[in-house]
Specification:
- The N and C termini lie far apart (about 70 Å).
- The protein is α+β, with helices and mostly antiparallel strands.
- It folds into 2 domains: about 100 residues, Homing Intron 3 (I-Ppo) Encoded Endonuclease, Chain A, CATH 3.90.75; about 40 residues, no CATH class.
- It has 7 helices and 6 strands.
Length: about 160
């Protein structure tokens, strides 16, 4: 008998429930494995992982349509409580993030290549040139966008 056959839906649900911590703040936090992005990661069967909040949703509501995400009302990536979850498109998820002020800015963004100090140095330049960008080791478009306040526009003017 293979290990996959031993993992019946009932057994999987028991394993899942054993990895949930019901907290005082209302969230039911996943205490099992996590992904590098901080989401719960449920080992469903031999070599098969499912995000914990998606597993919780699927067990309660069935399959998730390909175009939809399981989103968190509570903004807690480890929460698997069904009434804290909702289905939405990528646009719904982004709108929820923006409405709650959770979008990353500046050096908190995963793709950030600059520090605030470098941004102020670029803004202090008399103009932007490809040589300046090359000296900074950055693409010209990055330097141009900072200098023209297309990016990093959340930073105030330096007062010093």
């Amino acid at each position: 008998m293979s290990s996959l056959n031993l993992l019946t839906p009932k057994r999987a649900n028991e394993r899942f429930a054993a990895r949930v911590n019901k907290t005082d703040n209302g969230c039911w936090n996943w205490v099992g494995g996590k992904t590098v992005k901080g989401y719960g990661n449920f080992y469903f069967a031999s070599g098969v992982y499912v995000l914990a909040h998606r597993w919780a949703w699927m067990e309660a509501h069935g399959p998730i349509p390909d175009s939809l995400f399981v989103c968190h009302r509570c903004d807690n990536r480890l929460c698997v409580r069904l009434d804290h979850l909702f289905l939405g498109t990528n646009l719904d998820n982004l709108a929820d993030m923006v409405s709650k002020g959770r979008q990353a800015k500046g050096n908190k963004k995963w793709s950030c290549r600059l520090t605030e100090k470098q941004v102020y140095e670029i803004r202090a330049l008399a103009g932007v040139s490809r040589e300046i960008a090359r000296d900074l080791g950055l693409p010209w478009s990055t330097v141009w966008s900072v200098w023209n306040r297309k990016t990093w526009n959340h930073l105030p003017e330096r007062t010093v």
